[in-house]
Each structure stands twice: as C-alpha cells, then as structure tokens.
Design goal:
There is one protein chain. The protein is α+β, with helices and mostly antiparallel strands. The protein has 2 domains: about 160 residues, RimM (Elongation Factor Tu (Ef-tu), domain 3); about 140 residues, no CATH class. Helix content is about 20%, strand content about 35%. Strands 5-6-9-8-7-10 form a 6-stranded antiparallel β-barrel. Strands 12-15-16 form a 3-stranded mixed β-sheet. The protein has a two-stranded antiparallel ribbon with strand order 13-14. β1 and β2 form a beta hairpin. α5 runs antiparallel to α6. The longest helix is centred in the C-terminal third of the chain and has 19 residues. It is flat.
Length: about 350
C-alpha cells in the first residue's frame, strides 16, 4: 500500500504540448482532411487538460501531435540508431519506434522495440531489441500522440492527460520488481479469520438504502479437508496455512519442497500447527483476489459489516478449496532407469502420461 505525494502528473505534459515537444498539432474530424491547429493555452485540471486553440473541435474529435526525426547513422552490430538532438524525453515514453523509409517509390514502415536510450555528443542514440536494417540511414522515425476531445465549452475543450495512469503503472511495476517474485508465499493465520458479526446490523446497501439485516460470519470447517475424519475443537487458535505456488522454479523439485517444508515447520513456534499447501495458478489467483478484497474491507474505517462478512466468506471458501499439486511422474521399468527423476513417489507425485 503506497500513496504518491505528487498531485499533478499532467502538468509536464501540458507544457510539452505547448512547446512542440510532440511536434505539430492537427485537428482530426471524421470525413474531413486534417486541419492544422495552433494551441494557445493548456491548463491542467486533475486528470484532464483544458486547451484553447485557433480552431474549435467538437466532442469526439482527435487532437493529433506528429513529428519526424531523421536517422543520422545506423550501427547494425550494436543495434543502434542515432538521431540529431536530445529527444530522450519523448522516446522514454515509447516502447517501440516506427520508421518510414522510401523503397521503390513506396513507403516502407518498420517497427522496432526500444531496448535502451542514451544521449551521446548531443545526439540521441536508440538501441533496439532486434538488429535494424542496414539501409535505414536517412529514413525517418515517426512520433505521434493523439487525444480524444472529451467536452467543449465555448473556446475551451478538454482532453484526458493519462500521465497519472502511467505513474500508477510505473509504481506497480516498481513494487512488482522490487518486492515480489514468482516464489512468493502467503501465510494466513486462522485467528485472523475468526467471526466478528453475529447480530442484526443497520447499514446502507448498494442501492443507497438503509437496511437492517442479520449478519452471521462464515465459520471455518472443523474438518477443513473433505477426506479428514477428525474434528478440530478449535479451528482458529494456533493454526496457520502456508500457501506456495507449485509451478515456480525450485518449487517443482520434490527434494526442495521437502527441505522447505521441514524448514518452515522447524522455524515455526512449537505451539503453531502449520499446513503447507502447494497450489495451482488457478487457485492462487482466486486466493489472492479474495484475500485482497477481504484485506481492503478490513482496513476500511468505518467497516461495512455486510461487505466485510461477504469478503470473509469468499476467502474461507477459497481457502477450504485449495489442494496440493504434486510434480507429475510416470510409471516405467526400474531396470531401464535407476534414477528417481520423473518417478512415482507416494505422497510426493501425481500420475502423469508418457
């Protein structure tokens, strides 16, 4: 959970639209030729940018910004393209470039994914993810960006900036890279799932109507597994679930699984009973979605009793549904192979196919 201190992500974009960073501007209207557009002002209002220009569009029109940059040189071995001037600001917001080259009196358009950007001797050097053509010197890199007109009021018209969405995506990517991996683990203590509602509550429903309803939280099944005949007197106290992805890297190795399970149980407090479960991607997705909804409802102040109870019920339902996924093995003649690779081992394998 994080909150940015920035509150005006679209201010730099508004300035760029005025100073020709993104090139010349055009008014695109259905059924008509593009009309040159000269912007006068660009004011930011949250996620929107209010523009004024020498032409007044209508709602649904497009404001298109275009520019082209000539390729000065090509280094095929280094996969580098060099253009005149510093254009890092523009290219840093693109994932690929489009190149237009004249070939036999026709225009050839080629897309290259961007791998790296540098400024060298005042020029911009673009390293592509694949080898470029040798004959691209003198060709043009096309840069364009368009905005739909959302509303018009007098001489003013409004477009969506979109930079705040990029900022959120960038923050999500940062957290994904720095704090998450495919070998992630979920530890759920049963005591956190204890029932909290067992009476009538007055609350506002989804139709914005105040209702009174009896709410009773779902309880953990004392059996917890369908095949378990024993009954727990208390399925909450000193019991926890450790849930891991069965498909990630080392987790597919039964030896590493055994090592990790022993390590977890050794390091856990002696009075805590751990259930270690290696689950499928489908179950992991359901579990993480249900857990996230329950967590967000739990953190609200004030809490909504109906939504929190429903979120808890869904989380318990998923938790009771998850099952171990074992590495697959195949039956074969032991005389043919004396190793344990791909072998069937009781309680550690599921039967696969040849």
């Amino acid at each position: 959970m994080a909150k940015s201190t920035a509150n005006n992500f679209n201010a730099p974009l508004a300035a760029q639209l005025l100073d020709d960073t993104w090139g010349e501007s055009w008014l695109i209207q259905t059924g008509f030729e593009p009309i040159p557009l000269t912007l006068a002002t660009a004011l930011v209002q949250g996620s929107k940018i209010t523009l004024t220009a020498d032409q007044t569009p209508t709602k649904g029109d497009l404001i298109l910004f275009q520019k082209s940059l000539e390729i000065l040189s090509v280094d095929v071995e280094k996969q580098e393209l060099t253009v005149d001037g510093n254009h890092l600001l523009v290219f840093s917001q693109l994932s690929e470039i489009t190149i237009r080259k004249e070939l036999d009196e026709d225009d050839l358009f080629i897309d290259y994914p961007i791998f790296k950007l540098e400024q060298v001797d005042g020029n911009t050097v673009i390293t592509t993810s694949v080898k470029p053509r040798q004959d691209l010197e003198g060709a043009e890199i096309l840069i364009s960006r368009s905005f739909e007109v959302l509303s018009v009021s007098g001489d003013d018209f409004m477009v969506a900036g979109g930079e705040e969405i990029k900022a959120m995506e960038s923050m999500q990517a940062f957290f994904q890279k720095e704090f998450f991996s495919h070998e992630g683990t979920h530890l759920i203590e049963h005591i956190l799932l204890r029932p909290r509602h067992n009476r009538k509550y007055k609350f506002v429903d989804d139709s914005n109507v105040v209702v009174t309803e009896l709410i009773q939280d779902r309880l953990l099944d004392p059996h917890f597994q369908e095949e378990c005949e024993c009954t727990l007197d208390d399925p909450y106290t000193c019991i926890a679930h450790v849930l891991l992805p069965f498909w990630a890297g080392r987790f597919t190795s039964r030896d590493f699984r055994r090592f990790l399970e022993n390590k977890l149980k050794t390091e856990a407090p002696a009075h805590v009973f751990l259930t270690v479960c290696w689950i499928s991607p489908e179950h992991m997705e359901e579990l993480e979605q249900a857990w996230k909804i329950w967590l967000l409802e739990s953190l609200k102040n004030p809490q909504h009793p109906k939504k929190l109870s429903t979120a808890l019920s869904q989380l318990i339902e998923i938790l009771e549904k998850v099952r171990n996924v074992y590495p697959s093995g195949t039956l074969h003649d032991c005389a043919e192979d004396d190793t344990l690779d791909d072998a069937i081992i009781l309680n550690f394998s599921s039967l696969g196919e040849f």
